[in-house]
Amino acid sequence: MKDYNTLTVPEATLLQQEMRNKVITAPFNGKIALIGGADISFNKFSTTVYAGIVLLRFPSLEPVGYSLVRKEVTFPYVPGFLAFREVPALLDAWQQLPQKPDVLVVDGHGIAHPRRMGIASHFGVQTGQVTVGSAKKKLYGIYEEPGEKQGAHTPLVDRQGVVMGTVLRSKQKVKPIFVSPGHLIDVPGSLALIEQCIRKYRLPEPTRLAHNAVNQFRLGTLPEGYSPA
DNA sequence: GCGACAG
DNA sequence: ATCTTGTCGC
After folding, report:
1. Residue-number span of the structural domain to which A11 is assigned
2. Residues 154-213 of A with CB under 7 A from strand C
3. Digits of tens for pLDDT over chain A (229 positions)?
4. For strand C, is any atom closer than 7 Å to the CB of A107?
5. Is there a domain that residue A227 lies in?
6. What GO molecular function annotations does the UniProt record carry, in alphabetical order (predicted)?
7. Is A92 annotated as ligand-binding?
8. Is residue A58 in a domain?
9. Which residues 6+ apart lie within 8 Å of A224 measured at CB?
C-alpha cells in the first residue's frame, strides 16, 4: 500500500475520488457471531498513535480480545481526511487479529462524507470487510434533530436530499450519534446493527470498549499485541 | 467573504 | 483527539 505520510491533501483527495466507486452500499444478510470495534488514541502534539480493535461476541457483546498496536503518523488531522491518519495503524491491528469479526464498527463516519469516503468506508474498501461508521459529531450533511426518546432517529442527507446515514438518539438525555454505512451494508442495516450494540451508554459497545482499550494502552495499562479478554 | 469542520 | 475542576441534574 501507499505511504500516506508522504501524501499531500490534493493527492489524498484524488485517492478518495478513485476509491468512492468501490464502496458497496447493499443490504447485509450474513450472520454475525463476532463484531469488532476500532479506535485510535494519541497524545496531543505527538506523532505516535495507539490503535486498537476490540473483538466481541454478538449479540451478547462480551469482549473476546484486544489487538493493540503503536505507529508513527505524520499526516495531519484535516477534516475529511481522517482515514489517512488512522487507517494505516488500524490495518496493523487488523492483521494482528487471530480471527476477523463479521462486522467492524469504526469510530468516525462511513459514506456520510463530502466524497462518500469516510474512514469506515476507506477501511472497508481496503480490506474488503463489512464496516459501519459511528461518529459523535456531524462532518457533512443536513438533518433534523431527532426526538428526545431513546431510539428516535432522523435521516442525514446530502445537499440533494440523498440519504447518507442516520442521526440516532442512542439514549435519553444525551446528544445523538451519527451512523452511516462503511462498506457492504446499507443505511437501514447499519442503523439496525448499531441499535443492537447500545447498552448503558451513549456510544455503541464496540467503539466504547475500543476507546477504553486504546486509552489504557497509551497510558501503559494494557500491553501491545493481541490479548484475550 | 463567511461559516462548517469526524478524530 | 487530550487536558482539566468544578458543577448540575437524574
Report:
1. 4-220
2. 173, 211
3. 899 999 999 999 999 999 999 999 999 999 999 999 999 999 999 999 999 999 999 999 999 999 999 999 999 999 999 999 999 999 999 999 999 999 999 999 999 999 999 999 999 999 999 999 999 999 999 999 999 999 999 999 999 999 999 999 999 999 999 999 999 999 999 999 999 999 999 999 999 999 999 999 999 999 999 999 9
4. yes
5. no
6. deoxyribonuclease V activity
7. no
8. yes
9. A68, A69, A70, A217
Residue A205 lies in a domain: yes
